[in-house]
Amino acid sequence: MDLVRDRGCVILRNVVSEEQASAWEADLKNYTRRHRTVGGFPEEDPQNWSLWWTRAQVQIRSHERVMQAMNCVSRLWHVSDDSLPIDLASQVVYPDRFRIRHPSKDAEYTLPAHLDSGGIERWEDPTNRSNFQDILDGNWDNWDGWAADRRYDAKSDLYATGSACSCWRSLQGWLSLSHTSTGEGTLRLLPSLKASVAYIMLRPLFDTNEQYDDSQPTFPGSTPGNTQFYPTREHHPHLLMEKSMIGIPPVRPGDYVFWHCDLVHEVDRFHPGTRDSSVVYNACIPLTPYNIQSLKGVRDAFSKATVPKDFVGYPNINEQECEHEDHGARRENILSAAGRKAMGLEMFDAEEEGLTPGQQKVRRLANEVLDLA
Question: Which pLDDT does position 162 carry in this prediction?
């Protein structure tokens, strides 16, 4: 666990069987064949589809083994004050899309190095900024990127853009649905969490000549209203991204890849392999007050098979899934009791033995806000 915390990323092997993962991939491919005009990215040949509620996606988010994997990696985080309303042992659904990337030595796929879940907010929001206080105090080597005490109510979207992460994703992640080797249109990471975050957070305090200057009004890589942060070789030369960005090891159908919410990541520009590179995005979302508000909107979108709140501003949406008779936003596709809780459809057990006061508090709050009490 210490090694994972240092690197900021981990792969869990065989979370679901290869047969099951491959069946989900086939299901998604069949769905996109039936609905070729739903839209996605790239616009001319969608490979990252504007779909959130297919049967496969709903099943993956609620599969017992997937839920167990998320609970496992959530234990990388810790809470020092057990009265805080944080429950790392409960998950909240954050509906995201899926990628089926086709092999091509020529077609470029542009998803450059970035951090999600906030850009300027890491400096501008006082609570969010407090998560990096050791770095800003000059004690970067003491920074604990896995302390959840001040993460749970940090704002990641101060500008209400309608195309942002309105929740705290403690770890981003995706489940592999295909055999994909390193460099075959897959994920690349900068596996040095503490040093990279320290550099990014301190970069605005230095001018282009690397001299300390706290009067600069710029935050290189972040634009207000754009809740992604983009480090670049021009403004962040010491990240040495031409060498430090590492392609992940080969994955098989059923492997689950996770990375810390502050870890720099990107996608291979080209896919020179011979098979599709297919993944379903499914991040870890702990139960917190901020995330309960997100879940309320997610549950509503599920009930109507409509676009989730964080994607309503996404440009490449040509159809609503509620227009499809075969959409998967149906209760019978939720495969576990934990999955129904994560979707806000069943009560969280606030009386479970061994809970901290904070866990009890946030579970009761969830039941109240979701009108489940």
Answer: 57
Bridge partners (DSSP) listed for residue 48: 41, 99
Per residue in 143-165, pLDDT (tens digit) is 999 999 999 889 888 887 656 67
Which CATH architecture best describes the domain 2-80+98-284? Sandwich (2.60)
Question: Where do the structural domains in the chain lie, given as residue ranges?
Answer: 2-80+98-284
**Order of strands, edge to edge, in the sheet holding 40-41?**
9-12, 256-260, 171-176, 277-281, 98-101, 48-49, 40-41
- Nearest alpha-carbon partner for 242 in 252, 257, 232: 232
Helix (H, G, I), strand (E, B) or coil at 129: helix
Q: How far apart are alpha carbons 359 and 267 in whole angstroms? A: 36
Q: Determine how many CB atoms are found less than 10 A away from the CB of residue 89.
A: 16
pLDDT in tens, 85-109: 999 999 999 999 999 999 988 777 7
Measured at the alpha carbon of residue 132, what is the angle toward residues 130 and 136, in degrees to the nearest 5? 100
Nearest to 146 by CA among 282, 12, 1: 1
> What whole-number distance in Å separates Cα of residue 284 and Cα of residue 244?
25
Whether the bond between 42 and the residue before it is cis, its omega within 30 degrees of 0, is: yes
* CA separation for the pair 304, 320 (Å, rounded): 10
Q: Is the dihedral of CA 111, 165, 246, 15 positive or negative?
A: negative
Contacts 24+ apart (CB under 8 A), 45-50: 45/102, 45/107, 46/316, 47/99, 47/100, 47/101, 47/102, 47/109, 48/97, 48/98, 48/99, 48/101, 49/97, 49/98, 49/99, 49/100, 50/97, 50/307, 50/311, 50/314, 50/316, 50/317, 50/318, 50/319
- Distance CA(229)–CA(236), nearest Å, equals 12
Please state the rounded mean pLDDT for residues 251-260: 98
Q: Cβ of 347: how many Cβ atoms within 10 Å?
A: 15
